[in-house]
Amino acid sequence: MLKIDNISKQFGKKQVLKDVSLELNPGERIHIIGKNGSGKSTIFKIITNILKADAGQVELAENDYVGALIENPGFLEYESGLENLKFLGNLNHNYDEQVAMKLMEKFDLDPNDLQAVSKYSIGMRQKLGIIQAVMENQNIVLLDEPTRGIDKEGVATFVKLLDELKQEKSAVTIASHDEIPGLKYDRELLLKNGELASV
Length: 199
Ligand SMILES: Nc1ncnc2c1ncn2[C@@H]1O[C@H](COP(=O)(O)OP(=O)(O)OP(=O)(O)O)[C@@H](O)[C@H]1O
Fold this sequence. Notes:
Keywords: ATP-binding, Nucleotide-binding, Transport
CATH superfamily of the domain at 27-38 and 65-190: P-loop containing nucleotide triphosphate hydrolases
CATH architecture of the domain at 27-38 and 65-190: 3-Layer(aba) Sandwich
Bound molecules: adenosine-5'-triphosphate
Largest sheet: 6 strands, mixed
Domain ABC transporter: 2-199
Radius of gyration: 17 Å
Oligomer: single chain
Strand order of the largest sheet: 5-6-7-3-8-9
Shape: globular
Pfam family, one: ABC_tran
Protein name: ATP-binding cassette domain-containing protein
Order of helices and strands: EEEHEEHHHEHEEE
GO molecular function: ATP binding; ATP hydrolysis activity
């Protein structure tokens, strides 16, 4: 499974990550905490190849498939929620409409709603962001502040979804400042001064 080895990253003179290492285990749920600007999103961006590390390695196993929700998810603004999921799923030839529709219904989003995503509320966008990160059976799921803007019912649905992912042996890593009601982690890690350590 995913293994990060001694990742370092600098922006200008600022060393954001210093020799960060992390190994995920199947079914494990990890919480990464750290102040604003400590580098949590940067770790996720390096894992997903949005950013390149200055040093270190990201190793994925052959059957690892990463799903991620990082910062504000980008969508095709003038398309509906379901069209967006279809577009994203088809990029990897992994789209299953039944799965996408079911997940939308679970999160109280109407799959038949033709409203453009540009008209979605923050919480609705966030729900769509969570769905795209898990709808293709990704076995590694990275979620940056996943419950931001989501209502109580949506948070409960999210927690239930995470329990299902655990049963399916997906490894879920969440960066979050908030305590998510009902959610327990297997490991808590603190990112401080560029270093990632157990709490
Ligand atoms: N593309 C970039 N160019 C320059 N600096 C960047 C870039 N991306 C991130 N940074 C800087 O790196 C640091 C870490 O940012 P990052 O977004 O990873 O923090 P974070 O821990 O996710 O913060 P938050 O809790 O606020 O989401 C910040 O000082 C940020 O300004």
